[in-house]
Amino acid sequence: MRRALLGLMAAALVAGCASTGTEEGSGVAVEDRKPGAGGAAGSATSVPIGTTTIPGDPLKDPASPLAKRSVYFDFDRDDIKPEFRPMLEAHARYLSSTPNQKMLIQGNADERGSREYNLALGQRRADAVKRTLVLMGAREAQIEPVSLGEEKPRCTEQTEDCWAQNRRGDLFYSGEF
Amino acid sequence: MELTYNRPFFSACRTVERLFRILAICLALLATAAHAQLTIEITGAGGNQIPVAVVPFAGESALTPAISDVIEADLARSGRFRTLYTGPQNLSDTSTVDFAPWRGKNADALVVGGVYPVGGGRFEARFRLYDVPKQAQLGALAFTLTVQQARATAHRIADFVYEKLTGERGVFSTRIAYVVKNGARYQLQIADADGANAQAALSSLEPIISPAWSPDGSRLAYVSFENKKPVVYVHSLASGKRQAVANFRGSNSAPAWSPDGRSLAVVLSREGGSQLFLMNADGSGARRLLSSSAIDTEPFYAPDGQSIYFTSDRGGSPQIYRVAAAGGPVERLTFDGSYNVTPRPSPDGKYLAFVRRDGGRFQVSVMDLASRQVRALTDTGRDESPSFAPNGRMILYATQVSSRGVLAAVSSDGGVKQRLSVPAGDVREPAWGPFLN
Amino acid sequence: MDIALEREKEIRRLEEVERKRREDEHRRKELEEKQRKEEDARRLEAEKKRKEEAQRQEAEKKRREDEARAKAARDKQRVAEERRLKEDLERARDQRLKDQLARELGSTTSAARTGTPVAGDAGATAGWVDKIRAKIRGNVVLPPDLPGNPQAVFLVQLLPSGDIVSVRLARSSGNKAVDEAWERAILKSSPLPQPDKREVFQARLELRFSLRDEP
């Protein structure tokens, strides 16, 4: 429901967006909420429904880009898709501004195939997220990339939609895991 | 003078002898026609399953399960026997066997036995194995047992029968390890090779994967996620004591024992990527085996300990490779298809079981390492974690039936397929344990 | 004088007589000696002959005894063979009856007995070999994935009826279980098919088993 709404808005706002709504809907929505991305940003900030801004810890502010903690990947891929760069930039900035902060990145994979190979795929995704964050200014020692492989799926149906949600890197700060 | 006596005597003898010779020739003609010998070459076999009759043991109702039922199920499950229905028979190890009716049933072998109380809640189980066409005993044994040991005793009898009739060691007394997911709970379980008699070695609210038996069967290495990331543990089954042997920064996974039990091959991401390391079984002395920018994982020692099979995507897709345990050049073994993973060499080192994706199906396949020919063994489509029985005859693996994980076994030639009965739950990650001496 | 002359004459006459007597005596002795020597030679010859005869008789006796012993052994063996043969025949007949009974009970499948048309003895032999091979091979039960290529040789004796009289392992494969599986296949194949032509029947078969074709 929410994803459909986001997809609709994205389609309306971004002329010529080739995304097909169903598969890449969430991805498009995330991209549209990129701060400082022109008109899209302003409208995207209003998207969260029924939320109020809590002052203080930016990690707990649902309106903050730091609230976004998941990076999604294509099948058998570990390259960071452009739509996730703004969110990762926000995390990198936060990490560099709080040198004592530590982050755990858990890479995940969909359930098809070997568990150990999927663990390695999840690791590769976690490594890719870490590499991107370090390039964006985070310190190497702040981040531990690990993998859960296919063991902690967010979605358990055997559909492409579901598998796409499981090809994912999740970001956690100290105390959150 | 004497010659005049002798001549008639000798001629009479010769005549008798000649008569005898004629008679002998007649008999020979009648019986054997001629002494020439015809050579006939016979290659191959008309059948693969030895017909065997396991007669219910006298007095076995004192035990649960009935010993003969377990023997029969074991032999049938191996795929090498066809068990014949015997019905109730008044036969035990003390009986004189009339072979005619068993020959009539086309039985090659006959197992008879009895269970006798010996006091103190103990029993003696005795049995005899007969070769029916030869009408001869092939062997006999006796065991003393408690009520609780009925199943284990039956497995040992089945092992004896199997070895006598096939010339190879049976695996009915070996154990398997696997992981069951029930709701949010994960259990590492150890069971008899037939899936019965399961016991939990470890319970956790986080996933457990990749159990690997130490060569002596006393310990299991596995990966547990109880610390929110994969860590390799070694778990002593007798004491229940466990030790994190690989808990480095990043992920630690895919443990594999060296055949001498002294080393573990593991996959660590502590230096970036998923890379192969060797370490002592206590976790000390980790050293990198290979350096690549690709994924290297799922190491498994060749039975001679000289080389290590592994999965790598260094060629663009996950394929199976081999490297000397001392390091050195890497040899690619699979080329057909874009997804070949989880290499598991057979105990004799001649075959390699692995999982191959063909279209959308993941199937246990086997490669003849000499000819490099590959054959799919299963007709299921979501197979994982193949594991050879220690005699190399069966491969245990995990697959899915209506979205639920189950354990199955296939004979190494693909001829026999079975489902293991494991209590409800999602079952995965089977590992067949070694022979226990 | 005359007396002296007369005396002289008498002496001479006596001397002559004595000389003659001595000559006669000598001749007689010579003759006697000769006769004695001849007699001795005759005696020696006779003795020699007697000894030779005795030896000959002894040898002859020994030969007769040996022959008698050998004959007794042969007879004993013959009797044993006959008895064994009889037993085998009885056993085979017994087995045939059992088999027939089993067949009548419908629990065994009898081997196909379709012969291929052949020309001449060579063809008949080949056809017979094929039938035997097919029957025994059909009764071999071995796992197909045994390592290596075990091979063994069995010697089989059979009756013209095809009933198997004896099975002997002449060369083992080294795998007892495999040898036994082959022996079972032979025993289960009794009676073996008969040849289309009686003349090609052979009572002794050498069965050479191998698990698979050599590459």
Question: How would you describe what is shown here?
Answer:
The complex is a heterotrimer of chains A (177), B (437) and C (215). In chain A, strands 1-4-2-3 form a four-stranded mixed beta sheet. Chain A has six helices and four strands. Chain A has two domains: 1-50, no CATH class; 54-177, OmpA-like domain (60s Ribosomal Protein L30, Chain: A). Chain A is globular. Chain A starts with a helix and ends with a strand. Residues 1-54 of chain A have low confidence and may be disordered. Chain A has helices at 2-13, 25-32, 39-45, 85-97, 115-135, 160-166, and strands at residues 70-72, 103-108, 143-149, 168-173. Chain A has 177 residues and is α+β, with helices and mostly antiparallel strands. In chain A, helix 1 packs across helix 2. Chain B has 437 residues and is mainly beta. Chain B has two domains: 50-166, Rossmann fold (3-Layer(aba) Sandwich); 175-432, TolB, C-terminal domain (Neuraminidase, 6 Propeller), CATH 2.120.10. In chain B, 14% of the residues lie in helices and 44% in strands. Chain B has helices at residues 2-31, 67-77, 100-104, 150-166, and strands at residues 37-43, 50-54, 81-84, 109-119, 122-131, 136-146, 175-182, 185-192, 199-204, 208-213, 219-224, 231-236, 242-246, 252-257, 263-268, 275-280, 287-288, 296-301, 307-312, 319-324, 330-332, 340-345, 351-358, 361-368, 373-376, 384-388, 394-401, 404-411, 417-419, 426-432. In chain B, strands 3-2-4-5-6 form a five-stranded mixed beta sheet, with helices on one face. Chain B has a four-stranded antiparallel beta sheet with strand order 9-8-7-30, with no helix packed on it. A four-stranded antiparallel beta sheet of chain B has the order 10-11-12-13, with no helix packed on it. In chain B, strand 5 and strand 6 form a beta hairpin. In chain B, helix 2 crosses helix 4. Chain B is globular. The termini of chain B are far apart. Chain C has 215 residues and is mainly alpha-helical. Chain C has two domains: 1-110; 120-210, 2-Layer Sandwich (Fusion Protein Consisting Of Minor Coat Protein, Glycine Rich Linker, Tola, And A His Tag, Chain: A, Domain 2), CATH 3.30.1150.10. Chain C is 63% helix and 11% strand. Chain C has helices spanning 2-104, 120-139, 176-188, and strands at 151-158, 164-171, 204-210. In chain C, helix 2 packs across helix 3 (176-188). Chain C starts with a helix and ends in a 5-residue tail after the last strand. The interface between A and B is medium-sized, with 24 and 34 residues.
